[in-house]
Amino acid sequence: MRAGHTVRVVMTHSATRLISPATLAALTGNPVVVDVFDEPEPGQIAHIRLAQDSDLILIAPATAHTIARLALGLADDMLTTIALATRAPILVAPAMNPAMWTHPATQAHVQTLRARGVEFIDPTYGVMACGDEGWGKIADTPVIVQAVQQRLQRTHDLQGVRVLVTAGPTYEPIDPVRFVGNRSSGKMGYAVAEAALAHGAVVRLITGPTALTPPVGAEVVRVQTAQQMFEAVQAAFEACDVFIAAAAVADYRPERPLPTKRKRQSQHWTLRLVANPDILGTVAQHKGNRVVVGFAAETDNILHHAQEKLMRKNLDLIAVNNVLEPESGFEGDTNRLTLIYADGRVVPLPLMSKRDCAEQLLQAVREMLLRKGRLTA
Ligand code: C5P
């Protein structure tokens, strides 16, 4: 309200046990609705009006139960009915016991909702009301307010821009049941695809094997091997404006995959590997005025190696991270990136969620598209 927004409060029945609707009605100057059949304004169907007239819906604090109901599309109270009837962006700030937050059921629901474009203001680490300590404490109020402001300000500033993204690892077969691969989760590439969609881009996501749900609205091409990813990228590169290569492509593959499962037969087994094509390095040689972005996961001499890759692969930007640092790199939800531009600029970013990293990256991409004349403001 202090930022000048009109706030209308919808409460679940459980919420009314903790705080009275009258308090929130007095604070917001608007009626508070709880029941689906509450009709504070005669002649108007409250849940449809609230769903259609809102610029944004913030669910804070969101319980495990409400997150599950949202994921399933249940509409068994006023809040979930509005959430199902709205086209407005939905932001969710979870608050729950750490065991409930990390439970696979809750995490699966979060993933489902993220894929549908719902955004989460992740809980923080702290001591809960029950005395347990862990991840599950609702984000601080200024963080929530900032997320709301940013979401409201975000425009479709990449409307119609065709973004090609690679994500995840590649699996290089040894025999029908074994492969050479790596620990990439695909989270960074999926976050880039998700963010690009939210900015209005047309997204093609070429993904290696991951456990993630692809964002709704992306055109998804699933591949296993580097060779298949190479072919899919070559087929799509011509028609893209931006190529963001977030996949952790295996550099080598077994030279001759076995047609049948290899049995345990000797004390040693030597596997002969042969180099895979450098997907990014190959297509970027003919990039024209497309914007091409690479990632570099390094462990030593980070900036030096990244700069060398940027030049050799003809990139506009490389996002580099130190995979030996905690909370940065493979598998996690956060990353600490440094952006290195072809013009020599080096911009270190603080530790942030992969989704926020994606936002920063897309902002840089947009500036480069404008500079190259591939996008008009
Ligand atoms: O050379 P390096 O593998 O460290 O470069 C990483 C960047 O190159 C990433 O953007 C990755 O997606 C891309 N890459 C590729 N094809 C390969 C190897 C890496 O597109 N065979």
Primary descriptors:
Rossmann fold, 3-stranded parallel β-sheet, 8-stranded mixed β-sheet, alpha/beta, binds cytidine-5'-monophosphate, 377 residues, 2 domains, 19 strands
Descriptive notes:
- The chain has 13 helices and 19 strands.
- The chain is of the alpha/beta class and 377 residues long.
- The model has no long low-confidence stretch (mean pLDDT 94).
- The longest helix is centred in the C-terminal third of the chain and has 18 residues, at 354-371.
- It has 2 domains: 15-152, Flavin prenyltransferase-like (Rossmann fold), CATH 3.40.50; 162-371, Rossmann fold, CATH 3.40.50.10300.
- It has helices at 15-18, 21-28, 46-53, 64-72, 78-85, 98-102, 104-115, 141-153, 187-198, 226-237, 279-283, 302-312, 354-371; strands at residues 57-62, 90-94, 119-120, 124-127, 133-137, 162-167, 172-175, 178-180, 202-207, 219-222, 242-245, 252-254, 273-275, 291-298, 317-322, 334-335, 338-341, 346-348, 352-353.
- α4 packs across α7 (104-115) and α9 crosses α13 (354-371).
- The strands form 6 sheets. Strands 10-9-6-11-14-15-17-18 form an 8-stranded mixed sheet, with helices on both faces. A 3-stranded parallel sheet has the order 1-2-3, sandwiched between helices.
- It binds cytidine-5'-monophosphate.
- Residues 166, 226, 245, 247, 249, 251, 276, 278-280, 294-296, 309 line the site of cytidine-5'-monophosphate.
Q: What structural category do the secondary elements indicate?
A: alpha/beta
The radius of gyration is 24 Å
List all distinct small molecules, including ions and cofactors, that are bound in this structure: cytidine-5'-monophosphate
Q: Sheet with the most strands? A: 8 strands, mixed
